[in-house]
Specification:
By secondary structure, the protein is an alpha+beta fold. The protein has helices spanning 2-6, 15-49, 54-79, 86-123, 127-155, 160-177, 179-194, 234-238, 265-280, 313-333; strands spanning 9-10, 13-14, 202-205, 208-215, 219-224, 229-233, 242-244, 251-259, 285-295, 300-308. α2 (15-49) packs antiparallel against α3 (54-79), α4 (86-123) packs antiparallel against α5 and α9 packs antiparallel against α10 (313-333). It is elongated and about 155 Å long.
């Protein structure tokens, strides 16, 4: 009686075949659960020994990407033990290819997303750049999904080659029409990864200068010293010579001044030492030299060179102001006069001949 029931046929399969299918599927699920449990325990032990987040990422990949694929694999292999009609078999195969493609795309995107986020954390990107970073990730996702869908359609029997050829010809035309936009897009990637400048950096390019305010996919915006916003295409900036003052570790300063011709020789010799004492007495500075360099039209000219151990322009100006005040005070104490544009007329009186 029991054997007769097992041999009863429904939809081209015996009940015994359905039981085998069910047993295989249950065994597959049990095996997957064992693999999942063992893997989680090993990753947990590993995570306690490391300070990275890669273990959490691997757990995420296993639970969200690999385990669903294994479940489908167990179901697929179990179903293959049954006798199926060509139509149902085709549906299962199409579903399998679609699911496999979807999971593969998700896996690739997850790995790329984790890698880029790890890069972002390592470089400690600011909020504005994080926004641009997310936009770049979106572009990468669109490209990967496009490639994945093309692969899926090709495996499903669609004539993708003809479509791709048509898109290739159309793509060439679009690329020629939008080459400036594409150039700016690639320049954006260059700026993002090569980092010649960042938000907040003070740059000078050609006759323009200002602080970087925004870096977009096509344009970069700079706030000039006058207050107006300068908009540059990314290609213009990557093709230009840029001076980035924010990256300056120290600033070399050269300034000149003059004293009057009536200054005694002894005081002229003392001036370089006076300047050296003043500069060395100020924090974040390093004295280089001070020399009497030339005879001017109305002054005896000195040149001073020193270093500011900071790239901050405001700090440099504060230090220069302190030096100027100290020089003024010291020169007044020693009765040394700064020169200014004047002309002296000397008249020589001669005795008239008798």
């Amino acid at each position: 009686m029991f054997n007769e029931i097992l041999q009863t046929t429904y939809f081209q399969n015996r009940i015994a075949d359905y039981l085998i299918f069910l047993a295989l599927f249950v065994a597959g699920i049990v095996l997957i659960q064992i693999i999942k449990s063992v893997t989680r325990k090993r990753l947990k032990v590993w995570s306690e020994k490391t300070a990275t987040t890669i273990d959490d990422f691997l757990i995420f990949l296993i639970e969200k990407k690999l385990i669903p694929l294994l479940y489908f694999g167990a179901l697929y292999l179990s179903i293959k033990s049954l006798t199926l009609t060509p139509y149902i078999n085709k549906i299962i195969n199409i579903t399998g290819i679609a699911l496999l493609t979807f999971l593969a795309i998700s896996l690739v995107i997850a790995i790329i997303n984790y890698s880029l986020e790890a890069y972002s954390r390592k470089k400690t990107l600011e909020a504005s750049k994080q926004h641009s970073f997310k936009g770049m990730i979106t572009i990468i996702k669109v490209i990967i999904w496009g490639i994945g869908i093309t692969f899926l359609l090709d495996n499903l029997g669609f004539k993708v080659s003809a479509v791709v050829a048509g898109l290739g010809i159309g793509g060439i035309a679009i690329a020629l029409a939008a080459q400036t936009i594409l150039g700016d897009l690639f320049s954006y990637f260059v700026i993002f990864f090569d980092r010649p400048f960042e938000i907040g950096d003070f740059i000078i390019t050609d006759d323009y200068m200002g602080s970087i305010e925004y870096i977009g996919i096509k344009t970069t915006r700079v706030r000039s010293l006058g207050g107006e916003q300068l908009v540059f295409s990314n290609t213009d900036l990557t093709n230009s010579r840029i001076r980035n003052y924010k990256r300056m570790e120290k600033r070399r300063v050269v300034f000149k001044f003059g004293v009057v011709y009536q200054t005694p020789l002894e005081q002229l010799k003392e001036i370089p030492g006076i300047i050296k004492t003043i500069v060395n007495g100020i924090d974040f500075t390093g004295f280089d030299r001070a020399h009497f360099v030339s005879y001017g039209d109305f002054s005896l000219n000195y040149e001073v060179v020193y270093n500011v151990m900071s790239g901050d322009y405001n700090k440099y100006m504060d230090i220069q102001q302190t030096i100027n005040f100290a020089m003024k005070e010291e020169f007044e104490t020693r009765n040394i006069e700064f020169a200014y544009p004047t002309q002296s007329l000397f008249i020589e009186k001669t005795e008239s001949s008798s």
